[in-house]
Amino acid sequence: MDIKNVSYEVTQNCNFRCKYCYVLKYAKKGSVETGKAVIDWLLRSEISGRDTRTVRINFFGGEPLLAMDVITGMVDYAKLLNCDSLKKVRFSMTSNLSLLTPEIMTYFKDNNINLLASIDGDKETHDKHRVLPDGGSTWGLVYPAAQLLVKNQTATTARMTVSLDTASKMFDNVRFLVEDMGFTNVAPTPDTDNAVWSPEYIEILSNEYFKLEQWIVDRIHKNTPNAICIRYFSKTIGLLLKDKKMSRPCGAGRGYWGISYDGGIYPCHRFASYPEWRLGDVFIGDIDYSKVQGMIDRDNRKSEKCKSCNIHYCGGGCYASNYVRNKDITVIGHDACELRRLLERTGQNIINKCWSTDCFRNLFLNKGGKV
Ligand code: SF4
Ligand code: SF4
After folding, report:
1. Which of 34, 200, 202, 224 has an alpha carbon within 20 to 30 A of 342's alpha carbon?
2. Across the strands, what pairs with 60?
3. Phi/psi at 252 (5° precision)
4. How confident is the model at residue 253 (pLDDT cuts 50, 70, 90)?
5. pTM surpassing 0.70?
6. Of the candidates 112, 101, 39, which has an alpha carbon nearest to the alpha carbon of residue 73?
7. Closest of 97, 187, 186 to residue 147, by C-alpha
8. Residue among 268, 273, 325 to mutate when testing ligand 2 (max atoms within 8 A of CB)
């Protein structure tokens, strides 16, 4: 099993109390010692593979900036190892940005650590769910930090959670994050853990996807740089053009794993809140693969529910969301399928409307003219 990517939960603690968040807010924090053990474990050839040249660790939380000592300790350790190890360690971080200062930004830049921002849109939308422990606004902390980020990092992703009560502003929020704030990629992600998307809400989102589709089509026709600034769309388009259906939703339990603050090994970061999914720890190093056999063997294209489905970008739905809602990693809610259908429709419509433009075709064709 070549495990090349992990998220390490440097702390469970957070200075926000986002209403949809799944992380248990204990003051439990990782340590430099555990962080070093994560690196040592990941570099082992029986874990990351003999031929792997780069392993990646994403700092995760809670809010990782509350554990800067763990982050700097791990980065220093990796620098020492990078000098004489064949495998290199690279880092990234997922953050609510609120504690980002110019000094910390410089540190991340100097160490080539990319930040992924959790931000839901404009002030009104962001403050609906991403709140302080007393319920107060977080926008005043996040907005200047997001500006600092886009000024200092070339490729920036805003992970935007879409809730039932913010669905009708999804398009406005994506456009705000790209055009007003300068993010190069937005990942608008409907919350399928806490919300069931009834037909009425699917309809609202359907309209929002139509608006996004038209906006992206206009950007392509105007030759706007980075026209398809929603990676979910480019991924869908790529799969549609190749007529390739995903066999599984992600690399969880295979190439990508989550490590809890104390070194516990889980199929992905989302499972770290569930003790029944602890499959080992980085100090002992062995993993109980039997529990992830379903992820290892997964071929969604053969499953009863999905084999006749024509959706390309899916793979059977996020294992963690399925587990939260249905206590079964393979059972996806009907609404989650409908959300995938909206993505598929959007991708197909963008292809139909843009295939005649060179700049669009060139994004997806290689030099030999093949997809
Ligand atoms: S949309 Fe639903 S039926 Fe289709 S592949 Fe995904 S999970 Fe399966
Ligand atoms: S199981 Fe879900 S949260 Fe975990 S890596 Fe896969 S898609 Fe992401």
Report:
1. 224
2. 9
3. -55, 135
4. very high
5. yes
6. 39
7. 97
8. 268
Question: Could you tell me if the CB of 277 is within 6 A of ligand 2?
Answer: no
- Ligand 1 pocket mutation pick from 248, 303, 311, 334 by most atoms within 8 angstroms of CB: 311
Query: Closest ligand 2 atom, CA of 268?
Result: 4
Ligand 1 in contact with 130 (CB < 6 A)? no
Query: How many CA atoms, within 13 angstroms, populate the side-chain half-sphere of residue 177?
Result: 30
- Asked if the peptide bond before residue 238 counts as cis, ω within 30 degrees of 0, the response is no
| Residue among 235, 237, 171, 175 at smallest CA distance from 207 | 171
CA distance 92 to 56: 8
166-222 pLDDT tens trace: 999 999 999 999 999 999 999 999 999 889 999 999 999 999 999 999 999 999 999
Q: What is the tens place of the pLDDT at every residue in 36-50? A: 999 999 999 999 999
Q: Which residue's alpha carbon is nearest to atom 2 within ligand 2? A: 318
DSSP type of residue 370:
-
Residue 224: CB atoms within 10 Å = 16
**Secondary structure E strands in 240-311:** 256-259, 265-266
- How many residues are given for the chain? 371
| Residue 118 bridge partners (DSSP) | 159
pLDDT bracket for residue 320 (50, 70, 90)? very high
Q: What angle do CA 280, 20, 232 make, to 5 degrees?
A: 80
Q: Which amino acid is at 298?
A: R
Q: Can you tell me which atom of ligand 2 is nearest the CA of 256?
A: 5
What percent of the chain shows pLDDT beyond 70? 99
What residues pair up with 6 in beta bridges, in sequence order? 57, 257
- DSSP letter at 106 equals H
Where b means 16+ CB within 10 Å and e means fewer, 17-54 reads bbeebebeeeeebbbbebbbbbbebbbeeebbbeebee
Distance separating alpha carbons of residues 200 and 204, to the nearest angstrom: 7
Which residue CA neighbors atom 5 of ligand 1 most closely? 306
